[in-house]
Amino acid sequence: MSHTPQEIRKMETRKKLLDAGITLFSANGYYKTNSKEIAKLAGVSIGSFYSYFEDKKILLKEILNYYIDQTMSLEENQDEKSQIKEMDYDLFVRNMILRHEFSEGFFQQVTLLANTDEEIEKIYSDYRSRLLKQIDTMLIQHRDDLSESEISAISIILYSATEGAIHKIKFHRENVEEEILIQQLIHLFKHYMIKTT
Amino acid sequence: MSHTPQEIRKMETRKKLLDAGITLFSANGYYKTNSKEIAKLAGVSIGSFYSYFEDKKILLKEILNYYIDQTMSLEENQDEKSQIKEMDYDLFVRNMILRHEFSEGFFQQVTLLANTDEEIEKIYSDYRSRLLKQIDTMLIQHRDDLSESEISAISIILYSATEGAIHKIKFHRENVEEEILIQQLIHLFKHYMIKTT
Amino acid sequence: MSHTPQEIRKMETRKKLLDAGITLFSANGYYKTNSKEIAKLAGVSIGSFYSYFEDKKILLKEILNYYIDQTMSLEENQDEKSQIKEMDYDLFVRNMILRHEFSEGFFQQVTLLANTDEEIEKIYSDYRSRLLKQIDTMLIQHRDDLSESEISAISIILYSATEGAIHKIKFHRENVEEEILIQQLIHLFKHYMIKTT
Amino acid sequence: MSHTPQEIRKMETRKKLLDAGITLFSANGYYKTNSKEIAKLAGVSIGSFYSYFEDKKILLKEILNYYIDQTMSLEENQDEKSQIKEMDYDLFVRNMILRHEFSEGFFQQVTLLANTDEEIEKIYSDYRSRLLKQIDTMLIQHRDDLSESEISAISIILYSATEGAIHKIKFHRENVEEEILIQQLIHLFKHYMIKTT
DNA sequence: CATGAATGAGAATTCATTCAT
DNA sequence: GATGAATGAATTCTCATTCAT
């Protein structure tokens, strides 16, 4: 797996464009970002932009895939290190926050675009499914008293609560102390993970 | 408060443009909808469009305000009729669903635009605050054992869980039975409304 | 069939664009002519260009159709006036020259484009068929001694000789006296129109 | 006249580029063919393309010259072999067909470009002149009864008839039997080669 | 000497907005 | 007023050509 200097430079240029893309999409939104700006921020010519990415939408998709890969590897790495097979909800909540930390407003853009673009909707809904699945798995391990559809419903509720709450502290800057919110989220997970007798 | 026929016609044209706007913004997104299309769907000329609304963004803001008014009056009407001061969480959840039913993808568009437009952000965050406030009020009435910041955190969690869960059944069409999800949401509210001894 | 002043102006603008198109396509070729130039020569904005014609190729097609109509009406008008049903080859040759006179290099561009664009090929080959048909008809009237396939072959030869010869005097400016060439062409038609005993 | 292996390889690369050029220009037209494609089909880098040919137009000119040489050598070779000084019109017609067989749509592209490029016009008109000259020569040998300008006119007619007829069977695929058309062409030449008393 | 990544001028096209009728 | 033709700035995208490796 040795790379020639040229291959390395190609990958660097590609990376510069991906980074410029995520920065500008996050900051100004997809439609308010034009290809020239992206190229400029990446420090390359507009021609290069188009030789690396067929068009702006393709760039968005590649960024999306790139960051999903990065983001999902959080859990996998954690697992390996701690040798714990069973996913911990405390960890889950904190990882969700990490995800937001480095994806900034980007996923919000994606949410929007997913409305009008099928391919993006597909990629994004796969991603959400993977996260939902993680909650599902945790629930199943603790709650054999629930039906499958109850598990599904609770997963959605837990996912939404986490996602939305984090979003609010990160973006809308609601007037709430972060640590208390996290504690409450963990408390909520705990509530659902304990079988009601 | 009598209106001349001309004034009435003006109001009607205005309404037709607002409706066309919400329809197209919801279906195709703000940036993929152009003013010509809106005028066409409303059955008026592009010239008229601009005599009613200074520009496309103003139309969006007016739609936003219009629907927030409609939407918030749900609770107020309920209150007046039933003479119940105390907001019922079952009602709250079901009203949230109603809101979604007639605003469709519109608010999602607004979420996006809010990122890059301060004025829209302002209007939209006021709206969210009002909804959060409703949950806050309910919580305060039932839970004198919680601190203010805990109330805030729980409000956010409840709001996010409700908003997100509804969104998922309406848009992402997650594989979950609607009624079970609603029951679980109500169950969640109940959990928080009952003082833990 | 009364037209409002606005409709008249629209038709005039359209005509100006068609004229500018034929002028520039003929002079500089399709690929060396850009839409801005056409708009400029027509004295309208680039935006107008695109509101009248979806794109450059559509303009070309519309010009093609427009001039074919003009061009083919030569014979039909002649017929009406002279009440002569039977097409005269002297007239045919002279009409072919007239056609070239006002289409200039345009049809040459079309010939080229027809190679790579099916729709243009279709329009142009229909046109050629109509002209060939005229020769066919003349031949059939005079030569009941020839087989159908001989008629076809001779039609093609006569058409090509006329077309090519005119082309040469108009474009390649071959060193030949126009009137002599015309006389020779007419002589050629005569040769084929007289039954060989 | 010995060539080093390197010189041979250079010639081969050059030939590969010329071949790729004619193939793509013929198939898709000059303006729809880009230099990258040509290099790719030739199996060399774009950098090499530009070290062999200053630019795209130079390539076209060199192809044109190359194929004119090939094409004109038909007659010369024939002459040499058969030792017949006098050009035979049957041969002329059949050679014209051969020319088309291996130049395909290429000359048509050239016709077009000749309109807007003087150098190409020059090369191409020289070529046409040489072919016309051949007909001229044949005519002069048989028809001392004609004036010089009549000879010129008839040459143009014969050339156009042949060129156009072949074009029609090769490209426009007119509904005509090839052999009959060829017979009629030869018959036409014969008609002009025989002195009318 | 070959390579192909990088360049950027230039072409096509869109669309919010204006304004003469 | 209402209309819709006209405008042109802004954007996307292409491709001939260069030049560092």
Keyphrases for this structure?
homotetramer, about 200 residues, Arc Repressor Mutant, subunit A, 9 helices, about 80% helix, DNA-binding
How would you sum up this structure, described in words?
The structure is a homotetramer of 197-residue chains. Chain A is elongated. Helices cover 80% and strands 0% of the residues of chain A. Chain A has helices at residues 5-28, 35-42, 46-52, 56-82, 89-103, 106-116, 118-142, 148-172, 178-193. Chain A has 197 residues and is mainly alpha-helical. The first copy, chain A, folds into two domains: 1-53, Homeodomain-like (Arc Repressor Mutant, subunit A); 61-193, Tetracycline Repressor, domain 2 (Orthogonal Bundle). Chain A is built from nine helices and no strands. The model of chain A has no long low-confidence stretch (mean pLDDT 86). In chain A, 33% of the residues are buried. At the A-B interface, helix 6, helix 7, helix 8 and helix 9 of A face helix 6, helix 7, helix 8 and helix 9 of B. Chain A binds a DNA duplex (21 and 21 nucleotides) through helix 1 and helix 3.
SSE layout and pairings?
The structure is a homotetramer of 197-residue chains.
Chain A: H1 5-28, H2 35-42, H3 46-52, H4 56-82, H5 89-103, H6 106-116, H7 118-142, H8 148-172, H9 178-193
The structure holds a DNA duplex (21 and 21 nucleotides).
Low-confidence stretches of chain A: none
Q: What percent of residues of chain A are in strands?
A: under 5%
Described by strand count, sense and barrel closure, the largest sheet of chain A is:
none
Describe the oligomeric state of these chains in a short phrase. homotetramer
Largest interface: A-B, 45 and 46 residues
Mean pLDDT figure of chain A: 86
CATH architecture title of the largest domain in chain A: Orthogonal Bundle
CATH homologous superfamily assignment of the largest domain in chain A? Tetracycline Repressor, domain 2
| Helix/strand order of chain A | HHHHHHHHH
Q: What global shape of chain A is seen?
A: elongated
Per DSSP, the total helix count of chain A is 9
Radius of gyration of chain A: 19 Å
The end-to-end distance of chain A, rounded to whole angstroms, is: 56 Å
Helicity range of the residues of chain A? Answer: over 70%
Number of strand segments of chain A = 0
**For this structure, what is the CATH class of the largest domain in chain A?**
Mainly Alpha
Q: Write down the domain tally of chain A.
A: 2
CATH topology of the largest domain in chain A: Tetracycline Repressor, domain 2
State the secondary-structure class of chain A. Answer: mainly alpha
